[in-house]
Design goal:
Layout: H1 17-25, H2 37-44, H3 48-60, E1 64-67, E2 70-73, H4 75-81, H5 85-104, E3 107-114, E4 117-124, E5 139-141, H6 146-152, H7 157-163, H8 179-192, E6 195-198, E7 205-214, E8 217-227, H9 233-254
Antiparallel strand pairs: 1-2, 3-4, 3-8, 4-5, 6-7, 7-8
Helix pairs in contact: 1-2, 1-3, 2-3, 5-9
Length: 267
């Protein structure tokens, strides 16, 4: 007599064609913007025959375009990304970010929180600025960045204590990896409205950040990055705060134009 199947240990479903397509799309990155079929196969871990079939379909959908002897992400993906609420918030923030960048001469960021990571929506930097891991579309652990701390500080801190991974990710020896230590710092950030980090995300760099608060929620955050051997200074912190106030005010005013379902939480 055959044994009955064990329904408690169901085998995982094989990857769908959709998940394979996203694995292929994610093989592209800021360093490899144009890739050959062989490079895409190696980076995605998919067989060449599968990659070839997926590329043909993704080209039809304008998600991938041919580029000389290789392939690149299609502008159809940019069109989709530009219609997100987060992109709408970026549009609101851009004039203020540009003014802050011109005035300070430093690198300026805009980011949102996704679980325990920050995703950068904008970065304005001088041509001679030190290279950094941040960039449009980059995702970094929130605990290692000032902009991430500014966002986490407006979450429910009791929930964070219970659900944050322990230890948290480490990017440098200076990164905060202990949950208790981070939550203690976040309580201070919530009180003073300003977050700092020095050498925690990248050695040689420091950052100061503040949230964009709309109806008691941090829908995003902005930051000014600078060299770790310098101080941001009260003038930059004041300008950063005033910029955040202006952006948040314009976001709130936008809620009266049929966009209340965008904010204040999910962007």
């Amino acid at each position: 007599m055959n044994a009955s199947p064990d329904h408690g240990t169901r085998a995982p479903e094989p990857p769908s064609i959709l998940s394979k397509a996203f694995e292929l799309l994610r093989a592209f990155n800021s360093n490899e913007r144009v890739m050959t079929l062989s490079e895409l196969s190696r980076a995605s871990g998919l067989p060449k025959s599968t990659v070839h079939r997926l590329i043909a379909r993704l080209i039809d959908l304008d998600a991938i375009e041919q580029h000389r002897s290789g392939y690149k992400l299609g502008l159809g993906l940019l069109e989709l990304g530009a219609t997100t609420p987060a992109a709408g918030m970026r549009d609101v923030a851009m004039p203020y970010l540009a003014a802050l960048h011109r005035w300070s001469g430093q690198t300026v960021h805009l980011a949102v929180l996704r679980r325990y990571d920050v995703v950068y929506l904008e970065k304005l930097a001088r041509a001679d600025s030190p290279s950094s891991l941040s960039g449009v579309g980059a995702r970094l652990p929130a605990n290692c960045t000032a902009i991430g701390k500014a966002l986490l500080a407006w979450e429910n801190l009791e929930d964070l204590e219970a659900f944050l991974p322990s230890p948290m990710p480490m990017m440098t020896p200076h990164s905060i990896t202990g949950v208790d230590e981070l939550v203690t710092e976040l309580r201070t950030v919530r009180t003073v409205g300003m977050a700092h980090e020095r050498n925690e995300a990248q050695l040689g760099l420091a950052c100061v950040a503040t949230p964009l608060v709309v109806h008691e929620f941090a829908v995003g955050a902005i930051s000014v990055a600078h060299r770790a051997d310098t101080e941001a200074g009260q003038k930059i912190e004041h300008a950063l705060h005033e910029t955040a106030v202006q952006i948040a005010k314009e976001i709130r005013e936008g809620l009266t134009h049929g966009r209340s379902h965008w904010f204040p939480r999910e962007v």
